Every structure is written in C-alpha cells, then in structure tokens.
Fold this sequence. Notes:
mainly beta; 2 domains; 9-stranded mixed β-sheet; 5 helices
Amino acid sequence: MSAASTSTAPTSSPTSSEALPTAEQHGIKEHSDGRFGFVPVQTRSARFKSFDVADFPAVTGREAVWKLSPVAKFTDLTGGVLDGSAYDIDATPHADVDVSWVDRTDARIGTAGAPEERAAANAWSSFETALAITVGGEEAKEITLTRANLGSAPRAAHTIIEARPFSQAVVILQNTGDARLSENIEIIVGESANLTVVTVQEWNADAVQLANHFATIGRDARLKHVVVSLGGGIVRVNPSVHLAGQGSDTELFGLYFADAGQHLEQQVYVNHDAPNSRSRVTYKGALQGAGARTVWIGDVLIGRSAPGTDSYEQNRNLVLTEGTRADSIPNLEIETGDILGAGHASATGRFDDEQLFYLQSRGIGEIEARRLVVRGFLSEIVQHIGSKPLEERLQGAIEDELRGTEGN
C-alpha cells in the first residue's frame, strides 16, 4: 500500500473581521468578459439545490458531480419518466418501529436535505408515496428491510428513517435482484438518539442504482452509516450528513468490492455546522478484473459555526489485478481555526509484499496468503456494523468474492 497523505487544520484564526481575506483578493468576483454574472462555487455547501428536476439542465458528464460516472448508461434515470409507485418490502416487525407508506405531504419530507443533481431531483419529482421507518423506544433494537426484484423498468423511490429523541436502533436496508433505480433516503436523528443505518447492495449483475442519502443529526445524537456495495452493474451511493446539533457525532463506513466491468461509486459529504461535533469517515475497497472501477470522493466542511470540531476522513483501495481503476479524492474545507483536529488520507496500491512474505514464511500458500490479506483489509469495516448475523453473512460474501482472485 502506498503512504497516506494527511492534512491538518490551522490552529489559529484571524482576530478581527479586517484580517479576513476578501473575495476580490482571491479573484472570486465576476469577470468582465465571458459569462456575465457567473461566479464559480467556492465551497461545498454553496452548490445549487432544488427539489424540481426541471431546474437542472440535462446531464452531459462534464458536471463536477458526474464527471467520473458512466452517465450514458443511465440517461433514463437522470431525465426519463420514472415509476414512483410503492413496491413490495419485507420488514422484520418490532413494537417500537413503525414501517408504513406516507404521501408526499408528510411534514418530514425535505427536512434532511435537498437534491444537488438531476438524478436525485428526478426521483424527488417522481415518487408518489414514501416509505417511512419511524424508530421509538430507548431500548436497542434491530430491523431489516429487504427489497428484491424491483424490475428492469426505471423507478423512483423515497425513504424516510426517523429516530425519535433518545431512541436506539440498527436499521438494515437489504437490496437484491433486478433494479433500475434512482432514490433519495432521508435520515432524521433526534436529540440524544443513537441510530445505525446499513445499506447493503447485492443486486444482480445488470442492476443500476443511483442513491442519495441525506442525514441531519440533532443535539448529542449519533449516527453510524455503513455502505456495503458488492453487487450491481452500476451502484452509486452518496451520503450527505449535516451535523446540525451541538455535540452531534457521526461515523461513516464503506466497503466495496468491484469485479470486471463493475462501477461502484460513493461521494461522501460531512457538514460540521454545530459546536463540538465529531465525524469519522473510513471507506475501503478492493478491485479485480478488467474494467473494474471505483470512485470515492470525500468532502468535509467545517463551518464558522462549528468550533470544537473533531474530524477525519480516509479512503483505502486494494488493487488485486491489472486493468482496474480506483479514483480517490479527499477534500477538506475549514472556515474556523478553533477546532480539535481535522485531516484526511487516501491510498491505493497492490498487495503488501512484506505481509505476503511473512505469511508464506510460516507455511501458508501464496493463494491463501493473498486471501488472508484481503480478508483482514476489508474485515475492519464489517466489524463496525454492529449486527452479528449480518457481519457473519458479509464475511461469507467477501469469501465468495475472493475466490475470483485465485490464480491472479
């Protein structure tokens, strides 16, 4: 593995408004020629947002949010007509968890975030009813919702996950079968609630999923968000977390394993907008086979209103064969110097020869040694999920993926 690069926040801030740089000092103003009135977006939070698909131009692939995506393969999801009707789900029952369909007038819809790109806006404009998962009760609980075989026609979906104040739960979203899906998931974490949301993508080989998760976290509340992408032809899951309450905390984990011809993408955004908030982002992936492609973009914004922030993000990719590509782009914006710490790291590389040599010197064959290295690399993420049955099943799924590395 290559060495990780890190970035550390400044430790002091200007003492007066006069010390702050102006837009003109950095050339951030309208140009006198070209596109009159155009000023480039200078911060992640300033991106254009709208709930209406008509407010977004057609996707060309040159946009910042689409430039690393195979946009020609899902034009039906970014601009076509989508089926927004309800679909079949299978949910494990629990007395303190309500799972029901609600209409578009539900007061919670639109409170966690808004679309920043056309596919999300198309889904928002198209869904007819939303799936609402409402968690209550202070005792820890676990619920699994399974979607299978949504079909090959373009579809929109909208989901609300609300953890009421002081509640605790693990919510697992299991996805299998066929799909051509654009969806938005809103996650609302109330004061002092502790919520884990795990989304597992084990779609069929030709499935396409474009998902945007919007989360808002209240005072002294905690969200653990885990993305596991193993199946599907094109899977793009973009979590956006707003640390809105003082003392709010989030941990975002991701695990992905891309095979030949598979495109797995995740664009992560953490917005520190309250004092004494904390975030940790850790995504790990493996790639094998010709044309396997992964994309990870991590944006962290520490706003002026977030003194005492503690933040770190990292992405690691393990390349198992030739002909793969992993894009890893960490970004960190800091608007206040009054923080505990902030940094980021990114690394992409092949097997560590020293690790392989160590294992082989103790009588372990090369193929098994390689499998042990990859298993240990990815197991760190699995162990953070907090559901033993799911963790065991995912370890088996990783073993199935690793059988394809033999002989490479």
